[in-house]
Write a structure and sequence with these properties.
By secondary structure, this protein is of the alpha/beta class. 41% of the residues lie in helices and 19% in strands. Strand 6, helix 4 (105-120) and strand 7 form a beta-alpha-beta unit.
Length: 449
């Protein structure tokens, strides 16, 4: 059933236009990116062509088969258009149009009407009031997002199209991609639980990110999410946590936000990892995308005692266990004569401010060779002896040697630090300017192990 939405052989856009900065024009441009993969039909009764492409007055005027229809017309016209889709025997419909249950009773009646038509025709619906769907690997952008993301292994489910747009833009800048993006809107037919089941079986998806405002069937969501989370990690950002925002949620997607404490307890029960900010949602998604899940036993390596203390504080806060150094690990570092003799000899491993790239190499390699250490946060402060680019190359080399272990950077600084950060970024190694985020990223890797 989902194959028709994420890899359709043919799509008709009802409401196609070339009017500048319009939803219809945006969808047309996105669909045409995949024109070599599928047939694209444009429907507009008032124009003979859009962007130089022939249009049809109605979907029923298209002689060829249409698997999926995208509807982007005024809400009051949607039932009529849906009846045409019924006649055309379309299998799936994505309703972009707003003006349904999110606006109140009149909208609810209209939404019930379109649901009735779709059920009679055995048509599955996504939406209404949604951005659309994107499947980069299939060259499908059936949305009005301003950009198409790169192919990746993170899936994104969101009740907010605007948040999807912003995260796609961010992904283009930071060099990561998505397996699937779904804006599910008002959930007239297909629900978030349906999409979770799909993503559970999707071979391209490694982790699932969710922006959620409210649920219509919380019990079923927790039941499904609990099963999915056993296979695919789920990270969730819940909007509508306060009294004021709960009222806004109702007018945004027609969902009930509910008490925040109830949601928190439910997420915990389902082993969903809840975050508080968009930054956390994105960073933890990237951590699960780039790094292996690990057992809870880590080390901190730093050239500054203050950084080590801050990282240790956050490790304690998030329940990260700091591994005890084995005698052989200490001896390896000691015998190398590459590390200041006043180094800490315990975890956090403080190799002092005069640490060179050779100091970092022997200390990091020794820690990674200790079998029970599953991950290392490599912190670096900018001091006279510090060479960020050389230290970054050390991490890259050892990352490739110890692929089953998680290595995160916490290179803190500005201009001097810049070259080192670029090397880490280029080689797919996450770096954080804030100890809190580094430890939170490491935490999520242990949470789902």
């Amino acid at each position: 059933m989902f194959e028709i939405f994420f890899n359709p052989k043919s799509i008709a856009l009802i409401g196609a236009t070339d009017r500048k900065d319009s939803v219809g024009a945006g969808i047309v441009k996105n669909l045409l990116e995949g024109k070599e993969e599928r047939k694209i039909f444009l429907v507009n009764p008032n124009k003979k062509n859009v962007f130089g492409i022939k249009t049809y007055p109605k979907i029923t005027d298209i002689k060829e088969e249409v698997e999926v229809a995208i509807i982007a017309v005024r809400a009051n016209i949607v039932p009529l258009v849906l009846k045409d889709c019924k006649e055309k025997k379309v299998k799936g419909v994505i309703i972009i149009s707003a003006g349904f249950s999110e606006i109140g009773k009149e909208g609810e009646k209209l939404q019930e009407k379109i649901l009735k038509i779709s059920k009679e025709a055995n048509i599955r619906l996504i939406g209404p009031n949604c951005l659309g769907v994107i499947k980069p690997s299939n060259k499908l952008n059936a949305s009005f997002a301003p950009l198409t993301p790169e192919k990746g292994n993170i899936a994104l489910l969101s009740q907010s199209g605007a948040i999807i747009d912003s995260l796609i833009d961010r992904s283009k800048k930071e060099g990561f991609g998505f397996s699937t993006i779904i804006s599910y809107g008002n959930e007239a037919d297909l629900k978030i639980t349906d999409f979770l089941r799909y993503l559970k079986e999707d071979n391209e998806t490694k982790a699932i990110l969710i922006y959620l405002e409210g649920l219509k069937d919380g019990i079923n969501f927790i039941k499904v999410a609990k099963e999915v989370a056993k296979i695919k990690p789920i990270i969730i950002l819940k909007g509508g946590r306060g009294e004021i925002s709960q009222k806004i949620v109702q007018s945004h997607t027609g969902s009930l936000a509910g008490e925040d404490k109830i949601y928190q307890a439910a997420f915990l029960k389902a082993k969903i990892f809840q975050v508080e900010t968009l930054e956390e949602l994105l960073i933890l998604g990237k951590a699960l995308s780039f790094l292996p899940k690990i057992k809870n036993n880590i080390a901190i390596l730093t050239n500054g005692g203050g950084l080590g203390i801050l990282l240790a504080d956050f490790c304690e806060k998030y329940g990260l266990k700091l591994a005890k150094l084995k005698k052989e690990t200490i001896l390896k570092i000691e015998k190398s004569n590459l590390v200041n003799k006043n180094w800490s000899k315990k975890n956090p491993v403080d190799i002092i401010g005069d640490a060179t790239e050779k100091s970092y190499y022997i200390a990091l390699k020794s820690l990674l060779e200790q079998k029970d250490i599953q991950g290392v946060i490599v912190a670096q402060s900018i001091q006279v002896m510090t060479k960020p680019e050389k230290n970054a190359k050390v991490i890259v080399a050892l990352k490739n040697e110890f692929k089953e272990k998680a290595i995160l950077g916490c290179f803190i600084g500005g201009k001097i630090n810049e070259k080192g950060e670029k090397i880490l970024f280029k080689n797919g190694i996450l770096n954080f300017q804030e100890p809190k985020m580094a430890t939170l990223a490491m935490k999520v890797l242990t949470y789902f192990k």
